[in-house]
Design goal:
Blueprint: H1 11-26, H2 48-53, E1 69-71, H3 90-94, E2 101-107, H4 110-120, H5 126-139, E3 155-159, H6 164-170, H7 174-183, E4 191-193, E5 198-200, H8 212-219, E6 223-225, H9 228-231, E7 235-243, H10 247-258, E8 263-271, E9 276-278, H11 281-288
Parallel strand pairs: 1-9, 2-8, 3-4, 3-7, 7-8
Antiparallel strand pairs: 5-6
The structure holds zinc ion (2 copies).
Length: about 290
């Protein structure tokens, strides 16, 4: 497995994470999601009912980007009526994203959102193991679950990188920790983690609060492939914690494909679902006529 350098950029960051781990082990308190007292000591300060809340996304989803679908055909009986499961959402219908397919485990809300924030902002490292298990479930929806799908060649798993200044400040890349936790499962033995090839060479302002268009503009040109030889002809699985509009993973996919990657798939732990309109199949036929 390559790319171990860069996970722990400083000794101070490593020490801080270690101290945090010890604290949570010996001083359990309240659930960090619902604030109810924790009944049993756990490295992850999230109660069982909050953990149970974290469930896979259900319903009709865009087969390309994973957005929730609803039909706006006036004769449709229900939001999912007549959606076949192969109908892309309105956005993908207009412009196909550069990645082949994006999947996510759950919706970015409540306990899942809080657990991701525990890892990212509060440095509760055991959250990475919990989130890694969820990522593995999302990955199983992709054809990467079949080791023979790419003629026995191994897939590259690339976590969306942080800029070096953000990495120094946070002490770790949460996407990399989650990917490492997921790949500990023997089912993914044919996948190879690669953290050296894709770099975020330009610092960007936070994507939070930006519109879809602003996010795309903000992230454009932020990534670079440092070692094109490593991605040439490869099938790649991009991994991140959250998929919001897809601007970040689309930009990563764009530069990876331009560097010669064969295909790029995306798996995230969570997805911000907005419900995207899908053209009713009958109306789509009429519109195309
Ligand atoms: Zn709770
Ligand atoms: Zn879509």
């Amino acid at each position: 497995m390559s790319g171990r350098l860069g996970v722990w950029p400083t000794v101070a960051a490593r020490l801080r994470l270690f101290v945090n781990g010890i604290f949570f082990l010996f001083f359990p308190a309240d659930c960090r999601v619902c604030i109810e007292p924790l009944l049993q000591a756990s490295r992850l300060p999230v109660c069982q009912s909050c953990r149970d809340w974290v469930a896979p996304i259900e319903g009709d989803l865009c087969p390309v980007c994973g957005e929730r679908l609803f039909s706006f055909c006036p004769t449709a009986l229900s939001p999912s009526d007549a959606i076949t499961g192969s109908t892309p959402c309105g956005l993908c219908h207009r412009v196909l994203p550069p990645y082949a397919r994006a999947v996510a485990y759950g919706t970015f809300e409540h306990a899942l959102r809080s657990t991701i924030h525990l890892l990212k902002y509060d440095r509760v490292m055991p959250a990475a193991d919990f989130l890694g298990l969820k990522l593995g479930v999302a990955m199983a929806k992709l054809r990467v679950s079949d080791p023979t799908a790419v003629d026995g060649d191994s897939w590259l798993v690339i976590p969306v990188p942080l800029h070096s200044s953000k990495l120094r400040q946070r002490g770790f890349n949460q996407a990399e920790l989650i990917a490492r936790a997921a790949l500990r499962n023997a089912a993914w033995r044919h996948l190879e983690l690669e953290t050296r090839v894709l770099v975020r060479h330009r610092e960007t302002v936070s994507q939070a609060g930006l519109t879809r268009h602003q996010r795309r503009k903000n992230i454009r040109g932020a990534f670079q492939v440092r070692k094109p030889d490593l991605v040439k002809g490869k099938d790649i699985l991009l991994v991140d914690d959250v998929f919001t509009t897809g601007a970040t993973v689309s930009e990563c996919a764009r530069v990876l494909l331009r560097a010669g990657a064969h295909s790029v798939f995306v798996a995230t732990v969570a997805r911000a679902l907005k419900a995207e309109r899908v053209l009713h199949p009958m109306l789509a036929v009429e519109a195309a006529a």
